[in-house]
Amino acid sequence: MASSQNVVPEPTIESIPVKIFQGHDNWVVSVAFFPGGDLMVTGDGSGGIRIWDVEEGTLDGEVLKGHTDWVRCMTVSMDKKWIGSGGYDYKVIVWDTTTREIKHTLDGHTYEVFSVDFSHDSLFLASGSRDETARIWDVESGECVVGPITCNGEVFCIQFPPDDSRIATGANSIQIWNARTGDLELTIEESVASLAWTNDGTEIIAGGAGQIT
Predict the structure, then answer these.
(1) Per the CB 3.0–4.6 Å rule, which of 44, 75, 94, 174 could disulfide with 188?
(2) What is the pLDDT of residues 84-124, one digit of tens each?
C-alpha cells in the first residue's frame, strides 16, 4: 500500500489595522512620515494634502491645496521644516510645515513628477519626472541648482544617500549622479521602480518586476 503524507496548511495571519485615518475623498497615492513619526502626511488624487496626528489618528490642521491633480509623491525634510510634493500637474511644491503655506512652486518638469527626496541636511530637494529628467532645487531660494539631468527613462524614484554627495535615480537603469555637478558616476543595468540607500551609503536596494536586488 502506498504511504500517504499529511499536508500541513500554511498558517493564516489576520491583518488587523492599528489605526484607520479617514478624511480623503479620493485615492491616497503618497504617504510620508515626519522624522520621529509623530506626524504623517498624505496626498490624494484630488490634489489635496493632509497632515495627521499619528497617535490620535486625526487630521492636524486644514487640507493643503496647491496641486491641481494627483499628488504622486511626498517627502519631509529631516529638520521637519519642509514638505516636498510632486504631482501629475508637473509641479514640485515646497510647503512650510509651521505656517502650512506654500514656500515655493517649482516649475520646470514637462510631465508628471513621480519622485521627490530631501537631502539629509534639508537644504536641497531632488525631483524625478516622467519627462526623463531629474533636478535638484535649492530649498531656500527655489532655484534649480543642478539639472535638468537626462536619465535613462521615466524617473520613478530618486534618493540622496546619507552624506548627500550623490543622487540615485531609478528608471530603465539605476544611475548614480554627483549631487553638486550632475555628472554621471555609475550606471547599473537594472530596470527599477523603487530604491533606497543603506544607512552607510555603500549599497542600494532596488525593487523591480517581481524581484528585489
Answers:
(1) 174
(2) 999 999 999 999 999 999 999 999 999 999 999 999 999 99
C-alpha span between 117 and 31 (Å, rounded): 13
Please tell me the distance from the alpha carbon of residue 31 to that of residue 85, in angstroms, as a whole number. Answer: 10
Distance from C-alpha of 52 to C-alpha of 189, rounded to nearest angstrom: 39
- Contact between 154 and 190 under an 8 Å Cβ cutoff? The reply is no
Domains of the chain and any CATH numbers: 69-212 (2.130.10.10)
Q: How many CA atoms lie within 13 A of 78 on its CB side?
A: 12
Instruction: Give SS3 for 165.
Output: coil
C-alpha cell, 24: 480623503
C-alpha cell at 93: 511644491
